[in-house]
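Intended use. Records like the one below are meant for learning the mapping from a protein sequence to its folded structure. Do not use them to infer anything beyond what is encoded.
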Amino acid sequence: MKYGSVVRLGPNELSFIDVQAWKDIYGHRKAGKAEFTKDPNFFDASVNGEQDIVRGDNPTHSRFRKVFSNSFSDRALKQQESLLKEHVNKLVRNLTAQAKTGAAVDMAKQYNFTTFDIMADLTFSESLGLLDGNDYNDWVRAIVNNWQFIVVMRMLKSYKTFFAIFSWFIPKQWREERLKMFNYAAVRVNRRLERGTTKSDIWDQMQQRDASITVAEMHANAEVFMVGGSETTATLLSGLTYYLLTNPEKMGKLKQEIRTACPRDEDVTVERLQGLKYLHACVEEALRHYSPSVIGHVRIVPEEGGSVCGGWLPGGTKVSVPHYVAYHSPTNFARPREFIPERWIDTDGEFATDKRDILQPFSYGPRNCIGKK
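Structure written out for the chain above:
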């Protein structure tokens, strides 16, 4: 390894790939100890200026987490099982029809259709119909295109002078796509609240808790749910599909496990799938290679300073655990660049020294991803 477990990225920014860093940077703090706060330069504000469950300060995040926790629980997932099956069955029908033509299939696109349709149904009780139309609509196209804008702006914010200059030259299309992305979510929230629903969705669960949340806050959070639960999941599924197709022996092993446990279509349930060890191992290994975020989510050491991995850091220092680097370091995993689901099952053999706890694709601590299940 060319570099050690700590790398300086800038005058006041450090990157860590040690397991302990997750606890020190993102974990729960002892009584009286200040939290490492999120770097405001890393997270763009919502279009309407409201805080949301990702970008909000700690008190706001805690409030939103209580409001939405029921919507992302195991119980809620099981309640939505028929909805999930409905969309997955559409995906299977599409793939079957396309396979008969002999033409290549863009699996990343098909997975995006599926995850966006599912998240729209869960968030607004209204599918986007992407699987039916077999193409992106303007909203999803805006979300996909907006990633370029987000990445560029996030990088430039670290350099105030360059950012100030660049802000004058931001392409009009980027600004329009960002606004379109938010407005689509806001319109659908309003429509959902006006018409009500007979189905159980995020807002139904929220209203059952009699939550004090404004419509503007609903708009901001709806955008987060749509982006966070769709494209990232589709990327993971695309990566897993690629690795299984290029490793036929592992594909065969997974098929045997699934078909043994679920000989009929109706046997495929959330509860039964959760008990399949090799399937779980494949997903874990895919998350290691295709984490929802490849870079580290930057936190700032509190004013009084703090300790990370045994080293004292002054207040104001930016720190993070970069997912891709941590998951592909030979200090954390044997044969790190290979797809080996067995490493999550055979913990006594070749992979006995793997540091599995370094894998935290949904982050760690009180602000980890609410939708990781």
